[in-house]
Specification:
The complex is a heterodimer of chains A (112) and B (235).
Chain A (H helix, E strand, L loop, with lengths): L2 H19 L4 H20 L1 H11 L4 H41 L10
Chain B lengths: L12 E7 L5 H10 L4 E6 L4 H9 L3 E4 L6 H14 L4 E4 L11 H9 L5 E5 L6 E3 L3 H18 L11 E4 H6 L9 H11 L4 E5 L1 E3 L2 H6 L5 H15 L1
Parallel strand pairs in B: 1-2, 1-4, 2-3, 5-8, 6-9
Antiparallel strand pairs in B: 4-7, 5-7
Helix pairs in contact in B: 5-9
The chains are: A mainly alpha (112), B alpha/beta (235).
Chain lengths: 112, 235
């Protein structure tokens, strides 16, 4: 197994575990965004560096490495969005439930 | 016309009927339940306008979800409302006429002497029946029963049967977060999680053309299993 395979598998597991445990914090998000930004920035300034890193990891071309990481990153984002969405759904359910209970139509003649 | 004598405990029994775009059947279902002296909560799960107008004429408590959330969410809404209104016992009942209101007393009875916390209606236990069930539905249900047994660890003979009764204590303990159809499996896992005392009693399920058309598609079984498995991981 080459290094890139290990990295990709770890990335996959990471995404999955994040989904399962809902482990997130704003600080972590911002830090991750900063790191990704810096890496992309460096990759643009020094395009050949991606190939150097790729070769170290057992990938032939830098483009391929970027593509692999992009795939993992996208998957990760989708999973985060999904967890966020299901949280929103829960909140929405509670709101709609409260409204339904508070605006109940009682049988004629019953007051409370 | 008074039907058979109303059971003494009837006033404390609240029957929760989730309804989504139910048509002709619902008023007669509600009437049949009211006849026995039970309280009825219809949870209108965001039905289209015409259907909800029909509901408002029924002599029942009607909670209306502004948008469609799913049967699990509707049940939880009805249960919470019934609890807030002081229910002693809560029964869940289908809107499509599959269940028989005469059997509500049988389902509630084991709760009365506090010998159990929740009663599940079973169409496959001795004495129960499933009238007009198709072979394919029967097969999928048998598989679902095995799945539910594994998921909940309970010795079940039926599953995804909407006919249940629970004590106030059980209704407060059970929390349905599965808005969709996977709530039926979730109720079972909630029973084992809260260590509630469970009992099955025989009930009659009558499949009519209407109920089959309104009911679950068999292909949805996979979705239900998927949601149930995901729910287990979340904890």
């Amino acid at each position: 197994m080459s290094s890139i395979q290990i990295i990709l598998i770890l990335g996959l597991f990471g995404s999955f575990l994040t989904y399962l445990s809902f482990f997130r914090s704003i600080l972590f998000d911002r830090f991750a965004a900063l790191v990704v930004f810096l890496l992309l920035f460096l990759a643009v300034l020094f395009p050949d560096s991606t190939t150097t890193v790729a070769n170290m990891l057992g990938v032939g071309r830098g483009v391929d490495l970027v593509l692999y990481l992009f795939a993992i990153g996208t998957l990760f984002c989708i999973i985060l969005l999904y967890t966020q969405l299901s949280k929103t759904k829960q909140v929405q359910t509670e709101i709609i439930r409260s409204i339904a209970i508070n605006t109940v139509k009682k049988p004629a003649g019953e007051k409370r | 016309m008074e039907p058979e004598a109303k059971p003494q405990f009837a006033a404390g029994v609240w029957v929760v009927i989730p309804a989504y775009n139910e048509g002709a059947q619902l008023p007669s279902v509600v009437r049949s339940v009211l006849q026995h002296g039970y309280q009825v909560v219809v949870v209108d799960d965001g039905s289209a306008e015409e259907a909800s107008l029909k509901l408002s004429t029924a002599n029942a408590h009607v909670c209306r979800h502004l948008v469609n959330l799913g049967q699990g969410a509707a049940l939880q809404t009805g249960i919470r409302y019934a609890l807030s209104a002081g229910a002693d016992y809560i029964v869940t009942f289908d809107a499509d006429g599959q269940h028989c209101a005469d059997e509500i007393s049988r389902v509630v009875e084991p709760l009365l002497d506090d010998s159990c916390d929740i009663v599940l209606g079973s169409r496959f236990i001795e004495g129960g029946s499933a009238i007009g069930i198709s072979t394919s539905k029967n097969f999928v249900l048998r598989c679902a029963i095995i799945f539910s047994r594994l998921a909940s660890g309970l010795p079940l003979t039926d599953t995804h049967n909407g006919f249940r009764a629970m004590s106030r204590k059980a209704a407060s303990a059970i929390s349905i977060t599965q808005n969709g159809m996977a709530h039926a499996t979730q109720i079972l896992t909630e029973i084992s999680r809260n260590k509630l005392r469970m009992k099955e009693v025989p009930v009659t399920i009558t499949y009519t053309e209407y109920s089959i058309q309104k009911g679950q598609r068999l292909s949805n079984a996979f979705n239900i299993a998927w949601e149930s498995v995901m729910e287990m991981f979340k904890k």
